[in-house]
Amino acid sequence: MGKTFAIAIGINQYQHFQPLNYAQQDAQALWDLWTQRLGIPSNQCFLLTDSAQAINGQSTYPERETLQNWLDYLSGDGPMADSPLQPGDYLWCFFSGYGVSHNGQDYLMPVDGNPENIETTGLSLRWLFTCLQHAPCDRVFVFLDMNRPASIQSGSLLGTHTATLAREMGIPTFLSCQPSEISHETADLRQGIFTQAVLEALRSEQVQTLAELEDYLQKRVPELCDHHLQPIQNPLLVVSPPEKIHQPLVPILGQSTPTSSATVPFPTTLKPAESAIAPKPTAKEPPPQEDSGFWKQLILACFGIAALLVAGVFLTNRTAFTGNPQAPQVATPGATDPGAAPVATDPGAAPVATDPGVTAVVPPVDPGETPPDPEPTAVDPAPSPVPPEASPSPVPVAPATVPTTAPAPARPAAPSPTNQELLGRARTALGSNASDYVRAIAIARQIRPGESMYQQAQIDIDRWSQAILDIAEGRARRGQFAAAISAARLVPTDRPAIHRAAQNAIARWEAQGQQQQANQQILSQANQSIRAGNAESYVQAINTARRIPQGQPQYFEAQQRINQWSRNILQLAYAQVSGGSLENAIRIASLVPENTEAHPEAQSAIAVWRNRQTQR
């Protein structure tokens, strides 16, 4: 029986591109679904993101070399080890991040991808498909959610070459959008729209083949775009030959067992140990193995139910049985009244109804089970009045054994689902803000040492701590130093390496923040020097703003203002032409500084105006 392997790559914090918001979350969400919902063992799923933990000592930071090493490993071509894939296995490959079309070739951009050197820093799609074609497994599925960098303008459409390669090499490939469209992510979903639709499809338990997945995505992705006010994108599936479209998504589909096919269309045999804990069946089969016959269990259950009913009726109508509503007052001081001894049929009921000492009766009957159901307290009084003839039927059955055995075995199974739910709730709290990761860490910390899922929780906390620092660094790159420092201060102190890096970054950003404030004062001074309609005041403002050197905070803002003010000077020159004064127009246009956007236009206008002067 074949296995399913998967690799998910998601990159937010690029070294040479604007950060993406949710590519890393896309990969993480898909990895979570593979390992938790579809039951694929975590050692068959590889997560490569900005903040993913190393796997068996191997880096998962999505640099070009690292991505090549892992893909070579899966294909069996790499130096790391022999491929874990075998004939009959399936392989999923998912990528969320930037993609670039360059000289007619498509590239995935690793975290260190450089737009100035795409061919040597990007990951060629031709190389990727060739590598996957060598993988020693039966089927490979590729999912590409490629974003186009705004900084790169290409004459060819991203995805066209990818579709051609997928068709040539016979690898079924989903593209998040058509080559003429753009793939979107949204803060409402905290995911890419394409990835969100894929997750919904796989969770729906109705999608089992490529054809069914394609049909779902073609309907759902445009719906999500429309709902979240994004331009429409239409996913593209490339399949060659066409009959491959009916391939199942995982190897076990079509061979489901009666125990799993009714609820989950994916293989239950691959579920990790934490999700398949044994106490569940024992909660249903508490009797010893030698007495586990069906009829005997049924008879015991019937006796137990009958005993509960009789005891309930007895307690509800005890005054009718005793005929003396004052009996509780006689039974309590029973030692002072010798005539109370023959009336021994009542004391068994009296303490349960009125005596606060009833809680002292429960522990001997249900040791260690004080919190569960209130039913044991209703049954407890029945065994005590053994001598009287008023209740002979419920006594021999010993009904207390029925409620004690049912709830008791259910307890061992509780910690694991609870911790798994905690970790799931922590992961769903993740978003694009540092505070989201702080909340997730706080939830994960509720899992204590020695409990199930503790190690996984610690791995997630490490990854989320690094993500907080990544968010801070992204803010600093945008000049938001105060916000960057606020985020970096949220890095947990019990992660020494990450916390130390955060403290070093805070010191650096504080200095840059001070420089930013100083430069902001320079811009304010320049702005205050401007007098409406006075060209010379714009020149003075430009000279002041040019005191901010390249590489310092506010430099780009200063350049924007300089260009705006130079256009203002040129507009004043045009106004002089309208007033009939070419001489003043030429004088003012000559003030437009060099190395500004308006300077070439100003020089052209001056030439035209001087030509007019000579023609007069």
What's a concise summary of this model?
With about 625 residues, the protein is α/β, with parallel strands linked by helices.
Give an overview in words.
By secondary structure, the chain is α/β, with parallel strands linked by helices. The chain has helices spanning about 25-35, 65-75, 120, 125-135, 160-170, 195-205, 210-225, 280-285, 295-315, 320, 325-330, 350-355, 360-365, 375-380, 400-405, 405-410, 415-430, 435-445, 455-475, 480-490, 495-530, 535-545, 555-580, 580-590, 600-615; strands spanning about 5-10, 45-50, 90-100, 105-110, 125, 140-145, 175, 185, 190, 235-240. The protein folds into four domains: about 5-245, Rossmann fold, CATH 3.40.50; about 300-390, no CATH class; about 415-515, Serine Threonine Protein Phosphatase 5, Tetratricopeptide repeat; about 530-615, Serine Threonine Protein Phosphatase 5, Tetratricopeptide repeat (Alpha Horseshoe). Helix 1 (about 25-35) links the parallel strand 1 and strand 2. It contains 25 helices and ten strands. About 45% of the residues lie in helices and about 10% in strands. Mean pLDDT is about 75; it is low at about 250-295 and about 325-415. Helix 18 (about 435-445) runs antiparallel to helix 19 and helix 23 (about 555-580) packs antiparallel against helix 24. The strands form two sheets. Strands 1, 2, 3, 4, 5, 6, 7 and 10 form an eight-stranded mixed sheet that branches. A two-stranded antiparallel ribbon has the order 8-9.
